[in-house]
């Protein structure tokens, strides 16, 4: 069914088809959690794209005031309301409610390409990593420095990469990208607490602190197609700095490893 949104663009509300699952049956262990707040123009394409590679797509709806939830359902997703306190809280709630061993997290604003889902999941499915973050620095981005706010975020991202690499002796190129795959059990074990977008850096640092393997693979980032960013960088930057600082100075319980896709896996339960 084709509808017309407030943007006057035709929106496809047809359900997704699971075409990618036929080529790699291991993808049955993967669920995609899509984070969406007021993304009615792009949610359908995001869900249909993800459904090509996953049995199940779960949309965490940030109490959207538009038709995001309805369009997500029409496209074939299971939709849940998030706790209402930000993207981080939505991610934590999503990790709690899914049961699949590998969770891909994807934005709904059209900036992430669902075709990258198998590439993100691969290091976890083949047990060479526990967290795989898409790298915009090796995969390219249309969003790194168009506005002053984006430039500030890019500088913050590079500074965070350098600090994390120095602290844990690793070589990560992007630690803040929300497009990532994680071993669910490990993500639950490290005890994530952040309510807002800071959960992305918290996840990387807590996984490294706990000895989990963190890698990057190249993924391309497109510009958000419609609507507005939910990051209020001029208001939220102190929280980003405080979150980074807290975990970087904390004592290490075990040494993490990163960037080594061929490192021998430690003995751990792959689930
Ligand atoms: N469920 C839920 N999703 C959210 C919330 N805040 C943001 N999102 C979604 O999380 C994704 C990332 O948020 P964005 O505002 O695009 O953040 P960003 O990609 O870092 O910022 P831009 O590059 O400016 O788009 C989008 O799909 C949002 O709709 C929230 O409170 N709850
Ligand atoms: Mg975005």
Number of domains: 1
Strand content: 15-25%
Oligomeric assembly:
single chain
**Rg, nearest Å:** 18 Å
User: Could you give the distance between the termini?
Assistant: 39 Å
H/E element order: EEEHEHEHEHEHHEHHEHE
Q: Which structural class is indicated by helix and strand composition?
A: alpha/beta
Overall shape: it is globular
Uncertain runs are 1-9, 259-268
Q: For the report, how would you describe the main beta sheet? A: 8 strands, mixed
Give the beta-strand count: 10
- The first-level CATH class is given as Alpha Beta
Task: Tell me the CATH architecture.
Answer: Alpha-Beta Complex
Instruction: Determine the fraction of residues in helical runs and give it as a percent range.
Output: 25-40%
CATH homologous superfamily placement: Spore Coat Polysaccharide Biosynthesis Protein SpsA, Chain A
- The helix count comes to 9
CATH fold-level assignment: Spore Coat Polysaccharide Biosynthesis Protein SpsA, Chain A
How do the strands of the widest beta sheet line up side by side?
5-4-3-6-8-7-9-10
Ligands (ions, cofactors included)? guanosine-5'-triphosphate, magnesium ion
Mean of all residue-level pLDDT scores: 87
């Amino acid at each position: 069914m084709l509808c017309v949104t407030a943007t006057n663009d035709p929106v496809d509300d047809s359900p997704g088809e699971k075409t990618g699952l036929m080529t790699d049956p291991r993808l049955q262990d993967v669920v995609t959690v899509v984070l969406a707040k007021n993304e009615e123009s792009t949610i359908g394409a995001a869900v249909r794209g993800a459904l090509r590679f996953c049995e199940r797509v779960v949309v965490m709806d940030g109490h959207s005031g538009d038709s995001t939830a309805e369009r997500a359902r029409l496209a074939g997703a299971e939709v849940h309301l998030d706790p209402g306190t930000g993207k981080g809280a939505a991610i934590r709630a999503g990790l709690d409610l899914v049961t699949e061993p590998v969770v891909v997290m994807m934005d709904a604003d059209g900036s992430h390409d669902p075709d990258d889902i198998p590439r993100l999941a691969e290091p976890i499915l083949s047990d060479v990593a526990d967290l795989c973050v898409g790298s915009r620095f090796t995969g390219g981005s249309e969003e790194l420095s168009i506005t002053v706010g984006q430039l500030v975020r890019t500088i913050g991202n590079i500074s965070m990469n350098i600090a994390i690499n120095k602290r844990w002796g690793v070589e990560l190129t992007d630690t803040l990208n929300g497009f990532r795959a994680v071993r669910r059990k490990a993500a639950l074990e490290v005890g994530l607490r952040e309510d807002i977008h800071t959960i992305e850096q918290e996840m990387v640092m807590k996984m490294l602190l706990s000895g989990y393997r963190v890698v990057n693979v190249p993924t391309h980032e497109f510009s958000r197609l419609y609507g507005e960013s939910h990051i209020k960088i001029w208001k939220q930057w102190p929280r980003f700095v405080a979150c980074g600082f807290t975990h970087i100075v904390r004592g290490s319980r075990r040494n993490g490893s990163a960037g080594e896709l061929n490192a021998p896996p430690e003995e751990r339960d792959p689930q």
